[in-house]
Amino acid sequence: MLVEYAVASVLLAPFAIWEYAHGHGPSTAASYAALLCLGLVQTAFAGVIFLHGLRRLRTDSAAILTYAEPASAVVFAALFLAEPLTWWTVAGGTLVVVAGLLVARMERPGLVEPVSIEAAGTEPS
Q1: Cβ distance 85 to 77 under 8 Å?
Q2: pLDDT tens for residues 26-69?
């Protein structure tokens, strides 16, 4: 996540500088409060919660749960932003959620024993 956010910051910084230079940046205390909330709550705090969740779940289960993100974004956009829900959108979201549920209910393969470094032929010479 650190690399992802660092790369995004480097790529987006020129656009932010351009907007500020042309007077299109935030101009009120409410705007700065919204930016602070976006940075601290929706980005940093959400990232911390996600990483702590990864400690408690298997990786494949966490990946399946991420399928809910685009589907929930569509639902929240319809609820809070009055975005229209088309039949194609509902059908696509339903397919994503159903596929995630099917994969989550699949039988897990047996546990794989980790191979020690010595057995892998990489012991120091």
Answers
A1: no
A2: 889 999 999 999 989 888 898 888 888 888 877 777 777 787 88
Please tell me whether residues 63 and 83 are part of one structural domain: yes
Q: How far is CA 16 from CA 43, 91, 93, 116, 125, in A?
A: 18, 37, 33, 49, 53
pLDDT in tens, 94-119: 898 888 888 777 766 666 666 666 65
Q: Which amino acid is at 69?
A: E
Q: Residue 23 sits in which domain range?
A: 1-56
Residues ≥6 apart with Cβ < 8 Å to 34:
26
- Tell me, rounded to whole angstroms, the distance of Cα 88 from its chain centroid: 23
Query: Which two structure tokens, joined as six digits, stand for 75?
Result: 């639902």
